[in-house]
Structure formats: structure tokens, C-alpha cells
Amino acid sequence: MKLEIGQIFIRDIQFDAVSRIENNILYVNTQELKALLLEDEHLASVDFEIAKPGEKTRIIPVKDVIEPRVKVEGGGGIFPGVLAKVEAVGSGRTNVLKGAAVVTTGRIVGFQEGIIDMSGPGADYTPFSKLNNLVLICETVDGLKQHAHEKVVRFAGLKTAAYLGRLAKELVADEVKTYETPSVKEGMLKYPDLPRVAYVLMLQSQGLLHDTYVYGVDMKQSLTTMLYPTELMDGAIISGNCVSACDKNTTYHHLNNPVVEDLFAKHGTELNFVGVIITNENVYLADKERSSDWTAKLVELLGVDGVVISQEGFGNPDTDLIMNCKKIEAKGVKTVIITDEYAGRDGASQSLADADASADAVVTGGNANMVIELPPMERIIGHKEAADVIAGGFDGSLKEDGSIVAELQVITGATNELGFNKLSAR
Amino acid sequence: MVKEIERAGLPVVHICTVVPISLTVGANRIVPAVAIPHPLGNPSLTPAEEKEIRSKLVDKALIALSTEVTDQTVFEMS
């Protein structure tokens, strides 16, 4: 399966009477977009703000971040099974608005939403401070249950990303990247001497606002399965997830998975990247056993030499991570796990809730318990009082002057377990 | 908490869903629970059925508490 990604670099976003992309500037007609979004009768209001790198702006509480994309050639559409019809994606050509993102905020749904600062020390901890963000402030009608609330905001974000993506359908890309995955047989014949590597991508699926959707399927109801890596780039996986801001995978992360990117970069020279195994993180022990058994079985069936495993979230998913690692290693296949740490504010406590001797190659995204101080900002997009209740914050996190003292886990993407950030350790 | 109470001389039974974590942290008597968000209940059942589950889990825990163990032991529900 082969996919070309056409990148259109976006250096600015502006409101205008006509939505379009011109000279690498994204112009947005908010009235047209608003009318489209308010077709959902559960959405009471939606307002738009633009947040640019370097501004004294704070977005809180952040729900999801999404990159606008559009299918130009090949089957299916972006976010298949969710916005587009169910049809396999991952081949042909996709255009991407590189440097732009849609960020959703609004009244808090779950307590595990996050903060994006566009400047200051907080900005260093999130990759999204470097993007031109179109921020949606979504407020739902009264009386909506939490799950329905989350869904309304999720769809508003996805629809906006698709709307903006469509503006790039006819454009000539500034840069084109090509990604190709051969069949198992072709790959073995083509690269007989290279080590064969698979990627096990663990997806948050605990329910209670911790969910991920694959082609529209709620991942907690799925068994472990496989995807071509390029399917991720077309939005096969989306986040419906309010788990801890620092280490949840937003939809933006799934579209730009750095493990996939790096394995492709070495594909054909240092290794043979065979494919992506996706598995869940459920709340029943039997599910954890079944899914990790399945992961190890698929690894064995593929006959790969090594596996990279990435986790999402923390706490009981540490057990899913260790089960995957232990069972794959027991098949004689080497693993590297990517996780983050909850090692206490001083970093002295045990980092993971579970452990095993076979987990002897570990990459960390940082310690989410570390305490940080975020200075006041001139502009707040969203609801600043959320700082006292989001995970990592506490009563009194929000100071009178508007500064915030909280654990690092409040910042969206800070300790991302795909390695989509700069924190780590040696 | 399990370990600290045992250190003070009282036996403890840990009712928990993720048994591997309980084993890793060193609990000696473990009774597997229903699920992480609802260890002693099940929202898909009727309140009467839930009470029965809860009662059985507590009975099992009391049996575990009064059983001599020489090693970490998981008391599976029959």
C-alpha cells in the first residue's frame, strides 16, 4: 500500500469573507463554518479564536487537536467510518495543511482535559504551541450527558478539520512525501537481510470518556488487529479521549505518529517495517489477558524480529503494556516499550504501576508528576477555572493573578508516549 | 497500604481487578474483582444481582483473610 502526503505549509490563519488557502495563508469564513457546525442540534454555540505561536495566549481546557487533511486520490475519505463512509484508506494521495491545527475547547466534559500555552515556559512542553491553531469554543445545550457532550465536541472538531482540509483538495503541494508498505511476502523477498520490525500501538479504551475509534469502531469492543501504517495518516484512528492531557494521543498524534514516521525513515535501509498491530486497554482483567495474548499471537504469526510498543495513558494500562511486552518477549521477539512516568513530584517513586524483568528496553516521555508554574497570560481561550479540577491540577492551582501551579500532566502532549515531544531521560 | 498494614501485624486481603499489579506490589492475599471502574459491582446487572456479586466477593475475602498462606496467593472465585 502506497500513500503520498502532499504538504501545504500554513504560515498564518486569518478570518475572512471567503474560506480559502492563498500564499500559504489559511483564510476562514467563520459564518459558513458556524452554520455547518450548528447543524448539530446538541451544539448550542460555537465561537472561533486564532492562537498563534508566541502569543500570550492560553487555551484551557483542551479536548482534542486535529490536523486538517483531505483525500486527493485513492479510496475513502478522511476519518473513514466517522465522517466519511467506511472504505479502506491509506493509499493514493492526501493533502495536509502542515503547520495548522483545529483545537477544541469549551465547558469541561471530563476532568482530564489539558492546557496549551502559546508562549512562556508552558509552550516549551507542548508541540501545539508551534502551530497556527483555529480554536473552537463549543458549548452544548443543557441537560446533555457527559458522553453525548464529548461526542458533540469531538464531531465539531473533526468536521472543522475536514472543512479546512477540503480547501486544499486542488492545491499543488509544497512538498510531497511517499510512504509504501509492501506485502509480507514482497517485503521478505525485497529485503532478505534486514531485520523485520512491527509496531504495537496500544489505544486507550477504558470507557468513561477514555475511548478511541478505529474506522468508527469503539476500540474496547474490538480484538487486537492490524493496519497498514498509512491508514493512520488518513484518520483511520481518532481520539474520543479525555484521559490525562499529557499522555493521551490526540487525533493530531494519530495522524502524525512519530513511531510510524521513524520506522518508515529506516524502512528498506536499516529495517523492514512490516506493519502496525493495534490493541486496546480495557478495564476487565480477562480483556487485558485476551488482547495481549492476541498481540503476541499476531507478532508470532508475522515472524518479526523486533517490536516497538507504545502505551497510552497510565495506571492500569501499565499492566496492558507489561503483558504485551512479557508475552511478546516469551515468543523470542525483542521489544522496546515507550511509556511515561508517574514517579512522584520528586521523581523518587516507582515510575510504572507494573513491571517485569523482560521490559529491559524502555523509552520514557518524562515524569508527569513534576510541578510546573505557568505565568499569567493576556488572553484566555476557554474556561480558566478548569485549572483547579483537571488531572494534575488541584484546588488552588489557579492563582489570583492568573498563573497556574500544577503537575506537568495538565499540559496537552507534554509526556506523550509516542515520543511526540522533547522530554525523555538517559 | 496493603503492605504497610501487614507490616503493622494485621493480615490484609486485597480485592482488586488488576491482579498482576497487586502481585507486583506484593499483596499476599488477593481476591480478583469485577472491573476497574466498578470492582464490587456491575452496572449492567440489577441491584439485586449486584448485591449477590458483592456478597460473594466479601465472603471470599473473609475466607482469604482467615487462610494461612506461605506465598502470594490469588483466591479465584469459583
List keywords for this structure.
A: 426 residues, alpha/beta, four-stranded mixed sheet, 9 helices, 32% strand, B: 78 residues, three-stranded parallel sheet
Descriptive notes:
The radius of gyration of chain A is 21 Å and the shape is globular. Chain A is of the alpha/beta class and 426 residues long. The longest helix of chain A has 21 residues, at 146-166. A 6-stranded mixed beta sheet of chain A has the order 17-19-14-20-21-22, sandwiched between helices. Chain A has helices at residues 30-37, 121-124, 146-166, 184-190, 229-233, 251-255, 258-266, 285-302, 317-330; strands at 2-9, 12-15, 20-22, 25-28, 43-51, 57-62, 65-66, 69-73, 92-98, 100-105, 114-117, 132-140, 175-180, 196-204, 210-214, 217-218, 225-227, 237-241, 272-281, 306-310, 334-341, 362-367, 371-374, 379-382, 404-407. In chain A, helix 8 packs parallel to helix 9. Helix content of chain B is 41%, strand content 13%. Chain B has helices at 2-7, 19-25, 47-65, and strands at residues 13-16, 29-32, 73-74. Chain B has a 3-stranded parallel beta sheet with strand order 1-2-3, with helices on both faces. The mean pLDDT of chain B is 93.
Strand content of chain B: 5-15%
For the biggest β-sheet of chain A, the strand order reads: 17-19-14-20-21-22
Q: Indicate the multimeric state.
A: heterodimer
Note the total helix count of chain B. Answer: 3
The tally of structural domains of chain B comes to 1
Derived from helix and strand composition plus strand pairing, the structural class of chain B reads alpha/beta
> Which regions of chain B are unreliable across 5 or more consecutive residues at pLDDT < 50?
none
Through-space gap between termini of chain A: 36 Å
State the helicity of chain A in percent bands. Answer: 10-25%
- Supply the helix-strand structural class of chain A: alpha/beta
Helix content of chain B: 40-55%
Shape of chain B: globular
The radius of gyration over CA of chain A amounts to: 21 Å
The tally of strands of chain B reads 3
